[in-house]
Specification:
Elements (H helix, E strand, L loop, with lengths): L1 H5 L6 H11 L4 E5 L5 E5 H17 L7 E5 L3 H14 L2 E4 L11 H12 L4 E4 L4 H10 L7 E3 L23 E6 L9 E5 H14 L6 E4 L6 H13 L3 E5 L1 H6 L3 H9 L3 E4 L1 H14 L10 E4 L6 H11 L9 E7 L4 E5 L10 E4 L2 E9 L4 E5 L12 E6 L6 E2 L3 H7 L6 E10 L2 E7 L3 E4 L2 E4 H9 L4 E12 L5 E9 L5 H16 L5 E4 L15 H9 L4 H16 L16 H4 L5 E4 L7 H9 L7 E4 L5
Length: about 625
Amino acid sequence: MKEIFCENKINMIGDIFRNLLEICPQKGITFVSENGGRKRLSYFEIAVLARKRGEYLKSAGCKPKDFVIFQTYKDIDFTVDFWACIFFGFVPVLMNPVFDMKKDSAEGETLKSIYSYLEKPIILVGGGMYDEYKKFAENLDIETQNLICGDKYGEFEGENPIPKENYLKDTDIALIFLTSGTTGMPKCVMQTNKAAVAREAALQEVFDYENMTFLNWMPLEHPGGVLMAHLNALSNCGEQIQAEKGYILQNVTRWFDLMEEFGANWSWAPHFAYVLLKKEAEKQNKKWDLSKIVQLLDGGEMVDAKTGKEFVNYFRNLGLQKNVLQPAWGMCETCSGVLYNNDFDFENGGIQDFNGRILTAIGKPLPKIQVRIADENGKPLQDGEVGVFQIKGDEVTAGYYKNDEENSKVFTADGWFNTGDAGFIKDGSVILTGREKDVVIINGLNYANAEIEAVIDGIDEVKNSCVAVCQCVNKNGDEEVVALFTPNAHTEPVCACEKVLKTVKKKLHIDLTKAISVTEEEISKSNLEKIQRAKIAKKYSQGYFESFENALTEKKKFVENMTVPNWFLKETFVERPAQIYNLTENVRLQVSLDYLKKMLLQNVCESDKDETIVFQGDFEEL
């Protein structure tokens, strides 16, 4: 389809599907459910289902340009609903489905806010959840007449399932994405047909994805799922594997199991997934043939250079090519990825030294996209100078819906969009130093949250990707820099907290105010598993984590107050008559660290090894 893009024959998102059916209607998507079930639909079958779903929505009162809030629970339903809206000019509002249906749930409050803000549009509910959702909506005072069951179809008979008429102009709003919304009310990002098509056309000039097999397991509500993966595959006549996120996160090695099974050439994930995959592959001693993989995009969050290169180096022994892992940058406001680092490898490619920190370049922009670094007043800076990363191009959002105040903040007078990232440009590549606001201040110096989190994430006692470092204000109004993390199973929380503080001090020369071990659920994340630091900091200021701190304090007191006889801390052999105890050998007893004195705990915490203390002696005497 590259020639079609070059000839400017594609102006609308629907044109991509229309041309696809002319070239390769037999190709399609294999959907992998959360329990591992498989179902494949050809692109022609998907188009027919989408046409029927669109006819049903039309009969239910939907009109072109109407907003439709997506509440779909299965990827197969999302795909059909998405194309039904595109075919008939309805505007999908791509929102995460609500799972916590309690009346006072945070998800419910967000839904109600969006519903009211968009002036009470249709809510499309799928996945067999309509009846339960209807009760939930009633509790939120959402009019149930605005709920539409997404499991129904209308009538269609004919050879071409895609309507001939375009119901929208290329400059009309085609999609609404929602930002993560750290304060409860996400911003509504408007994207047009022109923006989405411009990105696909630019990709055609840089990459050869023709006829590849694409695998995606990230949420389709996010532009990385629906545009960077799904629409990209359609634009290149690619076969697709769409796996539910839950299926992969149950065991992340399933990701590469599927890549090998289907001979997939392309996939993507945020950086945490690559770190976790390497760790689990080592633990499980997994062996794959990775020689067919052409590109693994690493985006959605800051890419740590060290762990990225460790990933490439480890898997190249299984056939992974040198430059397969490609850091990329994009956001809802740019229709997903628009900068790519093609030089990253397991050696020194694709990185830059910045004041002693090794940073990963996010690369160069796609054709016709302009980037620059500016100071706080919008004045362009020279190469190498750190400032605000700004971008301009057809792929950039038309703005936030009904939000003039925010639009005035992010757009300059001459049309540049302020991404909120800080960085610099070197040799044409953009290198990010962090988010403008994603820094903590310690003794007057700025430190990137992500840099501190990467150090903590590398500690054996800490569960991967369950770390948040935040600048918080406590209930007394004092500022604190706090690390919240989830310890691995069978890890003593008191010991883990001490290890976190000591490791950060040793490696970064930073004194954190405190470290708090919490459950994994308390590390707030977006649907892309990005840490939502602002939300965590807000909860901290409200005293939400006091119960966790109190539990740690009690645990520490328990350890400090324990009294253990001297004989408990040394190996002894005690002889006893065999006829009494019927024992011919001494018994080895493993003692949990919970029952050791504070000094022993400190010694173990200071050790770099994962130690188990073993005592030998008579069982009864012990």
